[in-house]
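Treating backbone geometry as a discrete language has practical consequences that deserve illustration. The amino acid sequence and the backbone structure tokens for this protein are reproduced below.
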Amino acid sequence: MTADYELITAMDANLREFGMRVSRNVELPGGPVADLFASRTYFSWKGFVILSQHVALRDCADRTATIADVQELFDAAFRQAQKVNRVPLVRRQQFGFMVIPCLVVASADPALVQYAESRPRRHLALFEFPVVVDLGSGRIHYYCQTAMWGAFYFSDMRKLVTRCIVPAVMHPPNLLR
């Protein structure tokens, strides 16, 4: 792991405080190893639906990350989300997934930044919300607007990012002292 240990530990603590089950070094089905994988399932009054929310964080600070890395992490994290989901409902039947693939990079490529900040790809009863943490600039890149499709739920994904990822990057506690 090349990203700051304190950063990963702070994200872990923030995600747990947010009510998520967090695991470290999770081998995702048919994909990479996630340094953190967090999950929670909750009822949303916004649409009277059950949502299964997942964060997969991968440390790519030791190499150049690409859009393909984000998409691979999303696909593998969705397969893991289906595996750990404990709701006996079919997707689309008052049930959906939110998957937040998060890459931690030493320096974000402009194409990667543009991908993270543009409107996420559309899926059926599945939300994709990529996040790129640029250690070089100290910035977090993600979609800050609201798309028309699924407009109710973008605030849930942004809330998770601003409460769990942003504070870990902007003000990481010194956990090793």
Summary: Residues 151-170 form the longest helix (20 residues). The CA atoms of residues 47 and 152 lie 8 Å apart. The longest strand covers residues 33-44.
